[in-house]
């Protein structure tokens, strides 16, 4: 089985409404279809890299390859964990988490997106909360960073609602113009003070820990 060689593929994070999991090839195909149907108003650009400006077929292919490649490039010192978000049996978006030298820094960063047809129902908050539970409760993180382009009110609201604090402002070149990037940081103490009541269940984590830089990989 694939999990014999790479246990991360067996990781599951569940809430009452959602399941977050490493994607199968079928999941990636479904995620690509969601991206092709649209992620945001074309007049806006919530991402530093404007990948959603591409034609639908190109956008779909890039999503498939980008998320598949994250697992191919994985090392315990530099990992990127994209988890497809499944709601009522359908893939609706992706929640990711990444870190460099996590065993030392205990700091993660995250990003996410949802298909247009699945927004406005609290899924974005619930999937971020599930990821934070994995980070703090499962992996023992001390900090979680996030950033949004100025004007991305929904994402900013999610971060503030979960207890993130302001952590500075940067500037990014997006679509040929300078855009302010609002940075946020959530400490373990603030997460514990603001963690939602929604229950989160993590399964399959124990054999994954060395792959996150927490212990030695088996020889």
Write the layout of secondary structure elements.
Layout: H1 2-5, E1 12-14, E2 18-21, H2 25-37, H3 56-72, E3 78-87, E4 90-100, H4 102-105, E5 107-114, H5 123-138, E6 143-149, H6 153-161, E7 165-174, E8 177-187, H7 188-194, E9 201-203
Parallel strand pairs: 5-6
Antiparallel strand pairs: 1-2, 1-9, 2-3, 3-4, 4-5, 6-8, 7-8
Helix pairs in contact: 2-3
GO cellular component, one term: cytoplasm
InterPro entries: Acyl_CoA_acyltransferase, GNAT_dom, Ribosomal_N-acetyltransferase
Protein name: Protein N-acetyltransferase, RimJ/RimL family
Characterization of this structure:
With 219 residues, the chain is α+β, with helices and mostly antiparallel strands. It has a domain of 141 residues: Aminopeptidase, CATH 3.40.630. The protein is 32% helix and 31% strand. The protein contains seven helices and nine strands. A nine-stranded mixed sheet has the order 7-8-6-5-4-3-2-1-9, with helices on both faces. It is globular and about 50 Å long. The protein starts with a helix and ends in a 16-residue tail after the last strand. The relative contact order is 0.18. The model has no long low-confidence stretch (mean pLDDT 94).
